[in-house]
Each structure stands twice: as structure tokens, then as C-alpha cells.
Amino acid sequence: MGxxxxxxxxxxxxxxxxxxxxxxxxxxxxxxxxxxNQVRADLIRQATAQLTSLATLKVAQIExxxxxxxxxxxxxxxxxxxxxxxEQYLAGRLGPEPxxxxxxxxxxxxxxYEAVMLAGPADGVVRLSTLTLQYDRFIGQTFLQPPxxxxxxxxxxxxxxxxxxxxxxxxxxxxxxxxxxxxQAIALVYGxxxxxxxxxxxxxxxxxxxxxxxxxxxxxxxxxxxxxxxPGTLPNSxxxxxxxxxxxxxxxxxxxxxxxxxxxxFRWLPAYQLALLVEESTADAFAPLNRFGSVLAAIAFGAIxxxxxxxxxxxxxxxxxxxxxxxxxxxxxxxxxxxxxxxDRQDEIGLLAQAFNSMGTELRGLYQDLExxxxxxxxxxxxxxxxxxxxxxxxxxxxxxxxxxxxxxxxFDYYHVSVFLLDExxxxxxxxxxxxxxxxxxxxxxxxxxxxxxxxxxxxxANGRARIALDVAGDAVYFQNELLPETRSEAALPxxxxxxxxxALDVQxxxxxxxxxxxxxxxxxLSDQLAIAIENGRLFARQERVAQxxxxxxxxTARIHSALxxxxxxxxxxxxxxxxxxxRKVVVRLAPEAEALLGSGPADALPASAQRNGDPAAASSxxxxxxxxxxx
Length: 632
Prior knowledge:
This protein has 18 helices and 19 strands. Strands 1, 2, 3, 4, 5 and 6 form a 6-stranded antiparallel beta sheet that branches. A hairpin with a 5-residue loop joins strand 5 and strand 6. The longest helix is centred in the first third of the chain and has 67 residues. It is flat and about 110 Å long.
């Protein structure tokens, strides 16, 4: 019985859409993800570079501003008329009015200052001040500690801005000496700088968005130019902590003191004990990225729509390009990163092909970078294995260390490699082996470093932990060796045998940031191997010495036993012991009961050496050629 044929559920377009559309979406999604992350990384680098450049500019402006303020006060203090008036005033021959008028004239022509004071050079106590109604309460007080006074008596100096409870504000003080006719400092001139002047230099943030700002935090934690309220409200953030607390320079993404996530560059100014921060909210910094993400998403969805319509309406025209995409994607997934789609069309498929090829280029770059890192790691491990083989095959410690430092320096391309071993007292780490002409020179001079000294090796031998200086110029315990002027990075690692520290391995590089975590791990493996090999060499040398002594003792015993008379035994004993130990003199003495047992004669019949030693029981002596005396 006939009937109506069933209708096909869906057509070729639907099947193609369901089968091949994921093959388009997956590469497109990967491409979009890679592009988005690449753009984000580039944007972060650009924003960081802009903030860093602005921070560098601010540092230069602050330094120029500080130098100018120091010159202002120094010029006022060293003016001949001022020095003469101050000397007359201190001698009681002149009143304070001319000096105060000169200071007031200085203030009128220099709006950077809010007050000028005259103080004693020895104690820093204020004697005169401008704006007496406001600052006369500080007459009889001092603003400087003895070390600061010593500096101020020598040269004009701008001291680190700090919060002063008496003024309830951050004070920026410049002090300059007034020299008398005899060339000695007879007084100090204090210039109190308006902190808003410095704030006017720091605050402008050209090139940043509306949320961009730059500010300065003093070494005691106060933000310059901000109103000081109750204690405990000091600004704090990751940038402030790294710049002020750790005295670092750098950049990072972190919440600012108000809790807003920012991208910030921070600098520590050691001369003025200030932390400079230039920040911009990530919302403003990454606004182009958000716009790009929207565009990228729109492009992705547009490509999806075009692909779907193409599958539905242009099946035949699209089948081959989709097949080509599929094959290229499969080859790429199988490891052929050179796979690409031939671009011979100007429509959306052609654009998609270009995007796919761009994605392949990005992936090849990433893969090559990964291969390079793996190759570096393999080279390091191969070097460690080579040094490990040397450590197990060379028992002589000097030969082992000579080959080890040469291999480390050659395989890792380090500027200088050295091994330090602790002496018996444990107070010094002596250079045992090092690379190059400089290493030979240091070894010949008996170079050593005290344990706990201001050096990486001294620190490591004192603390038993590795110490890395990625930039030796900024490391607090770095010791500059004049023979190694090109050192930029240094790493020192402990040599341990169990819980016992025996020395340190020190490597130096001409490059900044030369050591990463993988390098440190490999170097620590090398240090452990070297420590075990050194200890094995010491044990081998000790066993060799014991074996030699045992052999000599056995020979000595055989020769003594071959003697027939007691006197001959004693003579041979003294002679053999002197030769074995290199003693200058060997004396063999017998107790009185042994003398009676052997039938010895009276004391006056003994050899002259026994008589000289005052022992009537001595039987024989041996005058050796070197060493100290040995008594038996």
C-alpha cells in the first residue's frame, strides 16, 4: 500500500550549521581570546610606560625644586651683610631688627617659604623668627637632631619632610650655615618651605585620565599636602608599602588608599626620604580595552552570523572553505603550527582566513618562545648533570672545584663564579676557587670575607639561606669588588652537608635581573652536589691519611719486633717515630719498675738525653731534623 514519503527534517544548510559551525567558532574564540589578551598586555605596558615616564619626570622636577630651595637659603645665609649682622648680633653689638627685616624681605620675594628663622649652630635652638605672632612660640626650641645639626653646620641641606606635631603639619625644612670671619659656622638659617609649592609640582598629571593623580608620602607615612586628622588615618596601599616601606621602584596594579583599583608607578627618593606615586584607575587605563572588547565581540558575533548564513544560503560556496578551515585547525591541533588557510577571497570568508592565519602566527610565536625556555631549562639541567658526574668522579677537592666553577661559568654564561669555604673557626669564608684571571688574583691574595659581613657571601654564611640581588645597586648587603666592576646581578647560595654549613657558591652576571626561579633551583641543586662532593673529598683525604698512618704503624711495628735487645727496641722506636711524625726530638722513657724488670743499669749509666730531661728511667732518644719534640 502506497503512502506519502516522510519529509526530511531539516536540510543540508541545517546539517552544515550544526556540524561545521563549531569548527568555526572554536578557532574564532581562540583567536579572539589571544588577541584580547595580547591587546590587554600591550595596553598595560603602554599605560605602565606612561606612568613610569611621568614618575621619572616628577622625580627630576622634585630634585630641581629641592636644589633651588637649597640655593635660596644658602644664598641668604652666606650674604656678606647677613653674616656681618649675625656676627654683630651674637656679639651683642646689634639688635635683631636688621636681621629680621632681611629675612622678611627674603620671604616677600620668595613665596615658596612661609618662615625664616635664625638658630644656634651647636644646639639648633631658634633665636629669631619672621612672623613672630605665628612662630615666636618656637623661639628657644630646635627642629634638628644632633646628626642633622652636624650636616647643617657644613653645608646647606634640605631635610627629609616629616610630620611635626607642634605645627600639626608636614614640615619641609632647609638649613644653611652662616660662617663668621674665622670661617666657622656661627649660626644656622632655617627656611620653612610651603609644602603646597612642592605639591604644585607633583600634583599635575599630564596625559592621564580624570582619575590620574600623583602624590608624595613622607618617610613617616604622611601624604604631602593633605589635611592631617586623627592618628591612624595615614595613607596605605601596596604602592606606598613598596616605595616607602621597602624602598623599591616599580609598578603594579593594586587598590589605592581609597579602595579604588589603580595602575600605579612608584619611586623612592632616598635623598629626601619621599615616596612618589603616580596612579590611574584601571577603569580609565583599560577603557580602550573595554571598547576593543566590545568591537572584538561584535566582530566575533558578526563572523558567526555570516558563517551561519553562508552555511544556509551558500552551501556549495562555503563547503570547501569550511573544509579548509577544518583541516588547518586539525593540523594545528595536531602540532603543525605552520598550518594556514589560503586567502584568495575578499568576502567574510577571506577575512576569517586572514584572522585564522594571524592566530596561527601568534601561536607559533608563543610556541617558539616556550621551546626556547625549555631549551634553556634543558641546558641548565644538562650542565647540572655534567657537574654532578664530575663531582662523583673527582675526589681531589681542588680539581673538583676548579672544574665545577669553570663549567658553571661556561654553561650558564656568568661573569664570575666562586666557591667560598668556612675556615675551622667558622668566622671567615675563604675563597677556595674562582673563575678567570680575577679569580686567580683573589686566590693568590688569600681573599676571604667575614661571616655576617656586608656582602652576599657574608650574609649567606651567617644565615644559611640563599640571597639574590637582581640589581646589586639597590641591594643593602651588596659588597662592591673593584676587580669585578661589571657585576649587575649576584646570587649566593649556601653549601650544606646535612644541617652543617660549609661555605657558599657565588655567581655574578653582567645583566640586570639575570636570575629567575628556574635558575635559582638549578643553582641550588649544583650547590648541594658541590657540598656533598667537597665533603666526600675531605673524607677521602682523611681516609687516605689514616691508611698511610696505619701502613707506617704496621711497618714500624714489624721493624721494632725484629730487634733483639731492649736497648735496640727503644732506639728503633725513637728513630722510627721521629721519621714518621717529622719530630725534632723523640725521647722514650721507662718507669722505674720497667727499668728493674729489664735489668737496666743505674741512672748515671743512662744516655745523655735522659739525664738532660731529668728522668732516671729514660732509655733512648732520637734527635730528629724538624718538627717538635715527642715523648713516649
